[in-house]
């Protein structure tokens, strides 16, 4: 029975150490001790460096030079595509960026928001190139008509957005004129009416929105075509395709009233009025 | 008159450990030292439903750490080399603490050996037709003369096992009953002196407090006997390595305990001498190929004697093989001798007068194949090979019958048996203590 050999077992010191380690108060002690040691090391560090505040400032510069001014992160140029010179200057003036700049500091989403707020911009796409170029792709609004409101002439696009103001009508003679409150909300209809007339633009002074509900066409010779509220295009087309269409080119009338479906009311020019109303049909 | 000061101190430590939540249990055996750590949780006072209250267990407990190691320096269940035992206890404690991730300060120990003697004592008092109160029981216990038994030997257990009132007997709690003569049986187990002191010293060197000491045949019976066997009476035989423990239970109380100084180690040394092989090799072939009944097949079954043994040149390995029948023929005579010893000591107790002659074998030796057949030849048919009950959280490796003592310890701690020192034995009180006892009386009654 005595032949069972001895085998390795822990020493007394190791046993006691392990038992101490299992005590909760000992673990807490170690934890707080290590905390205080770390605190003292930090204090020592600050104490050494606080004697020389320039060193701390150098520390800041070191981070700046090494982190923010790395060539991989810097942006050197702003490129704006699909925009005319006026818009480019406008964007440059708004963004006020000074290059080179760190790409971390650039807020691309914010830049895009700012650019989209410009009147003549419909949408934009902002990104940073691999070669450190801030690319701004702009889709401009296309002016389709001139809109006059309270003696102010503005260009508007198809959706009725005001793009920018112009000084006189003669600046954009190629575009039709729309007048009247909320006339810019119905640009599409106005343009279609223009297309139906298929006359040189010079002969028409413009379209007036009356009472926010219907259109009047005014010609150079102050002749007016009054269009109905409902289906103005159909009644105009009907009038133009009828045998009375020559009435437009004759300079005898001041008003051609198409507001009624089954009749056309004409008003003669004042000097020729004998019978004020001539009933056709 | 002795005051059981030490035993009361053990109980106090045990209660404080249970309150703290963790307790270590150590089985100091001849072949191995096992330590398990159990964690207690308080009774769920918030349980509203009656079903939620676990009535059988006074509190929930769970094994959180366990370790077992080969023991050195223990012979026949007694410490022979204190330093080696200390080292092994340290290792076992360390490993189980690591597994449990918590520290233990109080340990409860079970051990066999110490040449125990079990004695039943009887005393009775005259009550003059009054109802029995707890002070009567305390007075009755104070009439026992324990000091006569504790002169040469040390008292390990002193369990009140049976109350009798006039003609009635088999009472567990006579309080409130009216009678004239109140009698009490106490089962007293004494062991050789200084054995507890040795164990205490070993544990103190490992920075541990001894919180109780239990005799291992009693403890392993607690885990191996089922409820009916405890009630109707049964004998539990714990076949250990160094010793074989015997305990007889009747009416949930241990009425007798004894120890035979033969065990598995004797069988191993027989094999070692018979085949001229090393002790470790003998132990190996005993556990792997051992048996008790020879069949024809065993003649042909050859067992290879290992050559990997490091000091094989000292042994006779001329024969590379032995047959299993040869091995059995070595094991069986020694085993029969052990069974004879058991029978002898059972005869001394008057075991044949028992109504239930149930015998339950447990311990490592009970795993030998053929034990059931051999034992039933000796003791009649009422033999059973017991396996320990299940304890929550115990590893699978520790659920064999060789661990029945340590499992029984966990069960016993959970449901402590009353011992003599749990009662307030009246002594000659001083003036201060009188007030104290009056306060205690008020506390107990309101």
Walk me through this protein's architecture:
With 281 residues, chain A is an alpha/beta fold. Chain A is 35% helix and 25% strand. Chain A contains 8 helices and 15 strands. Chain A has a 10-stranded mixed β-sheet, with helices on one face. In chain A, α6 (187-197) runs parallel beside α7. The longest helix of chain A is centred in the N-terminal third of the chain and has 27 residues, at 24-50. The mean pLDDT of chain A is 81. Among the domains of chain B are: 5-114 and 195-218 and 397-421, Nucleotidyltransferase, domain 5, CATH 3.30.420; 117-190, 2-Layer Sandwich (Dna Ligase, domain 1), CATH 3.30.1490.110. In chain B, 35% of the residues lie in helices and 28% in strands. Chain B is built from 13 helices and 18 strands. In chain B, the strands form 5 sheets. Chain B has a 5-stranded mixed β-sheet, with helices on both faces. In chain B, β13 (244-250) and β14 form a beta hairpin. The two termini of chain B are 31 Å apart.
């Amino acid at each position: 029975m005595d032949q069972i050999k001895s085998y390795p077992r822990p020493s007394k010191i190791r046993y006691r150490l392990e038992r101490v380690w299992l005590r909760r108060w000992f673990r807490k002690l170690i934890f707080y001790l290590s905390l205080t040691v770390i605190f003292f090391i930090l204090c020592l560090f600050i104490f050494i460096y606080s004697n020389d505040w320039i060193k701390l400032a150098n520390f800041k510069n070191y981070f700046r030079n090494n982190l923010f001014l790395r060539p991989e992160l810097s942006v050197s140029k702003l490129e704006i595509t699909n925009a005319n010179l006026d818009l480019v200057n406008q964007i440059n003036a708004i963004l006020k960026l000074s290059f080179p700049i760190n790409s971390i500091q650039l807020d691309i989403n914010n830049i895009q928001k700012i650019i989209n707020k410009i009147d003549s911009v419909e949408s934009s796409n902002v990104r940073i190139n691999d070669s450190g170029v801030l690319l701004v792709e702009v889709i401009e609004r296309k002016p389709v008509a001139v809109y006059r409101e309270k003696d102010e002439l503005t260009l508007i696009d198809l959706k009725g957005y005001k793009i920018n103001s112009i000084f006189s009508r003669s600046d954009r003679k190629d575009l039709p004129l729309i007048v009247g409150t909320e006339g810019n909300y119905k640009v599409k209809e106005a343009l279609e009416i223009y297309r139906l007339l298929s006359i040189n633009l010079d002969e028409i002074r413009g379209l007036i929105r009356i009472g926010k509900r219907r259109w009047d066409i005014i010609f150079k010779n102050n002749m007016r075509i009054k269009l109905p509220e409902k289906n103005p295009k159909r009644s105009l087309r009907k009038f133009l395709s009828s045998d009375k269409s020559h009435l437009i080119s004759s300079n005898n009338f001041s008003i051609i009233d198409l507001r009624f479906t089954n009749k056309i009311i004409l008003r003669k020019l004042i000097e020729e009025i004998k019978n004020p109303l001539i009933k056709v049909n | 008159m002795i005051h059981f000061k030490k035993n009361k101190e053990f109980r106090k430590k045990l209660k404080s450990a249970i309150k703290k939540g963790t307790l270590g249990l150590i089985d100091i055996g001849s072949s191995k030292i096992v330590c398990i750590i159990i964690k207690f949780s308080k009774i769920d006072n918030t349980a509203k439903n009656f079903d939620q209250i676990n009535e059988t267990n006074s509190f929930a407990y769970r094994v959180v750490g366990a370790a077992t190691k080969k023991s050195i320096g223990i012979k026949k269940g007694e410490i022979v080399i204190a330093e080696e035992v200390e080292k092994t206890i340290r290792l076992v404690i360390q490993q189980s603490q690591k597994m449990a991730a918590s520290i233990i300060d109080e340990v409860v120990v079970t051990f066999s050996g110490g040449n125990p003697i079990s004695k039943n004592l009887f005393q009775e008092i005259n009550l003059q037709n009054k109802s029995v109160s707890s002070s009567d029981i305390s007075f009755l216990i104070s009439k026992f003369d324990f000091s006569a038994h504790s002169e040469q030997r040390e008292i390990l257990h002193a369990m009140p096992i049976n109350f009798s009132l006039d003609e009635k007997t088999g009472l567990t709690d006579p309080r409130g009953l009216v009678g004239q003569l109140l009698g009490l049986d106490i089962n007293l187990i004494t062991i050789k002196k200084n054995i507890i002191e040795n164990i205490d010293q070993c544990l103190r060197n490992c920075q541990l407090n001894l919180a109780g000491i239990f005799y291992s045949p009693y403890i392993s019976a607690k885990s191996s006997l089922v409820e009916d066997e405890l009630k109707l009476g049964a004998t539990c035989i714990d076949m250990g390595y160094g010793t074989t423990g015997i305990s007889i239970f009747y009416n949930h109380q241990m009425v007798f305990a004894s120890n035979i100084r033969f065990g598995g180690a004797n069988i191993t040394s027989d094999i070692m001498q018979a085949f001229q092989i090393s002790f470790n090799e003998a132990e190996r072939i005993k556990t792997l190929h051992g048996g008790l009944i020879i069949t024809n097949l065993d003649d042909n079954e050859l067992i290879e004697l290992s050559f990997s043994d490091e000091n094989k040149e000292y042994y006779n390995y001329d024969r590379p093989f032995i047959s299993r029948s040869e091995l059995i023929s070595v094991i069986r005579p020694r085993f029969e001798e052990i069974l004879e010893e058991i029978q002898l000591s059972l005869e001394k107790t008057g075991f044949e007068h028992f109504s239930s002659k149930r015998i339950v074998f447990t311990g490592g030796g009970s795993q030998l194949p053929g034990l059931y057949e051999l034992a039933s030849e000796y003791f009649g048919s009422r033999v059973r090979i017991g396996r320990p009950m299940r304890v929550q959280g115990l590893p699978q490796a520790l659920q064999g019958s060789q661990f029945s003592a340590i499992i029984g310890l966990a069960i016993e701690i959970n449901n402590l048996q009353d011992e003599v020192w749990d009662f307030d034995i009246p002594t000659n009180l001083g003036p201060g203590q009188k007030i104290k006892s009056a306060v205690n009386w008020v506390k107990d009654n309101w």
